[in-house]
Amino acid sequence: MSNQITINADIAKGTINRNIYGHFSEHLGRCIYEGFWVGEDSVIPNTKGIRNDVVEALKKLNIPVLRWPGGCFADEYHWKDGIGPSEERKRMINTHWGGVVENNHFGTHEFLLLCEQLGCEPYISGNVGSGTVQEMSEWVEYMTFDGVSPMAELREKNGREKPWKLKYFGVGNENWGCGGNMRPEYYADLYRRYQTYVRNYGDNEIYRIACGPNVDDYKWMEVLMREAANKMDGISLHYYTVPKEWQDKGAATGFPEDEWAITLRKALWMEELITKHSAIMDQYDPEKRVGLIVDEWGTWFNTEPGTNPGFLYQQNSIRDALVAGLTLHIFHDHCDRVQMANIAQIVNVLQSVILTEGEKMLLTPTYHIFDMFKVHQDAELLDTHTTSARYEHGDEKLPQISVSASKAADGKIHISLCNLDHSAEADVSIALRGLGQGQKTIKGTVLAGAAIDSHNTFEQPNAVEPAAFTSFTWDGEKVSAKLPAMSVTVLELIEQ
Ligand code: AHR
């Protein structure tokens, strides 16, 4: 059976918030140190200590927003340790992640400089688990107060006279777990209290994000929405795709064939999670004012052999590219509720878009998906109906394809298509309705793998990279295409 798709180009279903294409960076392993921060004296070319190659590559993705400093690290982080002359900054143990010494050389100023270099919005996670209300309140004052105040003076003493603009602020992270092992009722009260002192200074308006549930903890969502919905702008959701068990998650490469389909099935669970959490949110917020912020998602595999298990370093293959494509499609479909998402994590940790090894750097298959899909940022989601063929492998029964279409402000239409099948091409027929008059042309780009774990290495950094896609015909109303096995394709339709 072939795959039948109908796209109504004249029916928009909502705007795909560009923040769905957000990223996450934690003081974990080699994400911050080496991934971004090398210091001004490094032989690695850098601007004020931040490496140039990584920033240049990331700028191409139009990253909208970057979350920092954690993660679990956030609820142990005391921001005052990370300001002032770097040689005088306090050293601490990063107890969550490998027990290494954190020298605090990368702090608030450095993070906000990184965001300036990337041209993205900062999203800062505050410390509820081990920090005080005063500490959180003063951090916001330090960053955003324009006037005479103790924190504004301290900021100026540290070399920054003008405040920064800061919109996104998370009040704690995983407070049901590493952020304090709290019950939802207790955290809901703490959230109400802490957020009171996260002030809007001048015209800086903060979008407050409450710590939301782990995976399918619907009770947590229910309690938070019931007790605090009117005091939040967003609530987070964390879900990672783990092929096997937490104790033995499965390898990032060299995995058996059945783990391909299992991984994609688990990635598709995001659809059910968002649907059910949204239904609870709808009861308390029918206007959909509060955003669902999926600020940690992605694959989580066993760490690479020979690396520090606390550093969560994993390779990234064409399977990760499929997980990224599928998940971004799910976020598009829920763009009425999902206002932001942050893949974990941007460099050298979990499902990264970039890996580094000293001065070497490579782009992962996931990077290429974010690059190919950036055309969907802020575009209008188009009404799309898909009848997919089945992809069956062992006990797994999945749809063969996943599709999403959007129309950008300049009128260009983009259709992204994932072929989940690891062994067969997908025949696809796309009827495009509501296009209006005028000649249209289509061009395509595809990312495909030769094997289920095709990936890029420092020796072969371009083994998996996008190529022109030409296996299609277009008669002005219908596209007939053959998608390679294990591939992600983006078609662009342009009015001539
Ligand atoms: O991303 C790694 C960790 O996963 C984060 O620190 C934590 O929030 C989550 O459990």
From TrEMBL:
Pathway: Glycan metabolism. GO terms for molecular function: alpha-L-arabinofuranosidase activity. InterPro entries: Alpha-L-AF_C (IPR010720), ASD1_cat (IPR055235), GH (IPR017853), Glyco_hydro_b (IPR013780). Its EC number is 3.2.1.55. It is an enzyme of class 3 (hydrolase). One of its GO terms (biological process) is polysaccharide catabolic process. SMART domains: Alpha-L-AF_C. It catalyses: Hydrolysis of terminal non-reducing alpha-L-arabinofuranoside residues in alpha-L-arabinosides. It comes from the Bacteria. This is non-reducing end alpha-L-arabinofuranosidase. It comes from Paenibacillus algorifonticola. The lineage of its organism: Bacteria, Bacillati, Bacillota, Bacilli, Bacillales.
